Amino acid sequence: MDKTFIFRFYRLLCSPAVQTAGFIIGGFIISLATLLPAENLPPAPGSDKLHHIIGFGGWTLICALGPFKRFAYMALFIIFWGGAIELIQPSVNRYGEWLDFYADAFGVLLVLIIRFGFHNFLKRKTMSDK
Asked: What is the DSSP string of 43-55?
């Protein structure tokens, strides 16, 4: 495979437009999954808290590439949206639990810490190469 194709594809993935599209699509999917009435949801194996960690961590992960500062703001919004969802859920026949919010925030913070470490590693590596 041609290296220039790989570099172009990576540059496309890191663009602000793709980052924003991932943010919007992920937000739509998470909002739909967490705000549908409980009787409309199929049963899923595993812990509810694990689903929250994976769901919100996954949403954060699809926003991770791109400008770091923008990503940090998106991650902060995702945490706030997780709290808002827990406040909205009782009005759509669901249970709002603060432990779910903590699981949401944990998933987001996990990805944020990994991305921050990766960002600093790349920054140090490029500075040491000069």
From this structure: P-SS-HHHHHHHH
Contact 93, 39 (CB under 8 A): yes
For the segment 45-76, what is each residue's pLDDT rounded down to a tens digit?
878 899 999 999 999 999 998 888 999 999 99
Coil vs helix vs strand at 3: helix
Angle subtended by helix axes 98-129 and 48-61, to nearest 10 = 30
Task: Decide: residue 11, CB within 10 A, 0-12 exposed, 13-18 middle, 19+ buried.
Answer: exposed
**CA separation, residue 19 to residues 7, 14, 56, 82, 115 (Å):** 17, 7, 15, 19, 14
In the 3-class helix/strand/coil scheme, how is 60-91 assigned residue by residue? HHCCCCCCHHHHHHHHHHHHHHHHHHHHHHHH
Q: What is the DSSP letter of 94?
A: -
* pTM, to two decimals: 0.85
Distance CA 68, CA 71 (A): 5
Distance CA 108, CA 83 (A): 12
